């Protein structure tokens, strides 16, 4: 489906040059779509530190004057985020508390990709089910962003519609999450800047749901 907001500011479909990557078990990365301008650890990068969240890679890099310098980059597991819509057009939001003191209100399901996830879509489905209890029929990738070019870490944001089931949550020991349904316009008004910018190209929740359509679409090209 293509179209424009009533003010003509943006088309609903915004093709982004990119590529589909198969799952790489050696690197610990799932099947995923990445934009063409993604910054990656180069093949010659050698892991020099393995942390709980971040791994550090270094490699020799030739400079413009012919000299060699050590370049460095971090890598961590990708993040998946799901903006889930109920059949009456509300957003499935969460209030979250973690032992470290992190408290979030009015967010949506989000979590890290795990080595057992075959794809980022599988990870999004799993995280959404665990944190909110919701399962959805239709999924479409809204955006992929790299928060920091010195970190090989990509955030994949999906929109999900067509509620299949609502079950009990299955939370980690370090999570306290309560689920709330929020009117779509209220969610957009207070959403993360990147999410808000991506959603503002839709006139309303009905247009967003029509854009998601039926089935699963996991690329932006």
From TrEMBL:
<keyword id="KW-0378">Hydrolase</keyword>
<protein>
    <submittedName>
        <fullName>NUDIX hydrolase</fullName>
    </submittedName>
</protein>
<dbReference type="InterPro" id="IPR015797">
    <property type="entry name" value="NUDIX_hydrolase-like_dom_sf"/>
</dbReference>
<feature type="domain" description="Nudix hydrolase">
    <location>
        <begin position="75"/>
        <end position="204"/>
    </location>
</feature>
<dbReference type="GO" id="GO:0016787">
    <property type="term" value="F:hydrolase activity"/>
</dbReference>
<dbReference type="InterPro" id="IPR000086">
    <property type="entry name" value="NUDIX_hydrolase_dom"/>
</dbReference>
<dbReference type="Pfam" id="PF00293">
    <property type="entry name" value="NUDIX"/>
</dbReference>
<feature type="region of interest" description="Disordered">
    <location>
        <begin position="1"/>
        <end position="28"/>
    </location>
</feature>
<feature type="compositionally biased region" description="Basic and acidic residues">
    <location>
        <begin position="1"/>
        <end position="12"/>
    </location>
</feature>
């Amino acid at each position: 489906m293509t179209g424009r907001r009533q003010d003509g500011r943006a088309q609903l479909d915004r093709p982004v040059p990119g590529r589909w990557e198969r799952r790489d078990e050696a690197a610990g990365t799932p099947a995923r779509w990445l934009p063409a301008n993604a910054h990656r650890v180069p093949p010659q990068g050698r892991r020099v530190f393995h942390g709980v969240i971040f791994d550090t890679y270094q490699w020799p890099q030739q400079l413009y004057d012919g000299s060699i310098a050590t370049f460095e980059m971090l890598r961590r597991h990708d993040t998946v985020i799901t903006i889930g819509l109920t059949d009456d057009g509300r957003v499935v939001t969460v209030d979250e508390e973690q032992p470290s003191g992190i408290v979030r209100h009015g967010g949506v399901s989000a979590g890290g990709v795990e080595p057992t996830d075959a794809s980022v879509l599988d990870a999004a489905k799993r995280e959404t089910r665990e944190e909110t209890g919701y399962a959805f029929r239709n999924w479409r990738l809204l955006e992929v962003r790299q928060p920091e070019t010195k970190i090989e870490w990509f955030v994949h944001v999906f929109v999900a519609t067509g509620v299949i089931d609502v079950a009990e949550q299955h939370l980690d020991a370090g999570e306290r999450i309560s689920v709330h349904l929020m009117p779509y316009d209220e969610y957009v008004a207070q959403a993360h800047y990147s999410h808000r910018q991506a959603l503002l190209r839709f006139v309303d929740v009905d247009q967003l749901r029509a854009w998601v359509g039926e089935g699963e679409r996991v690329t932006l090209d």
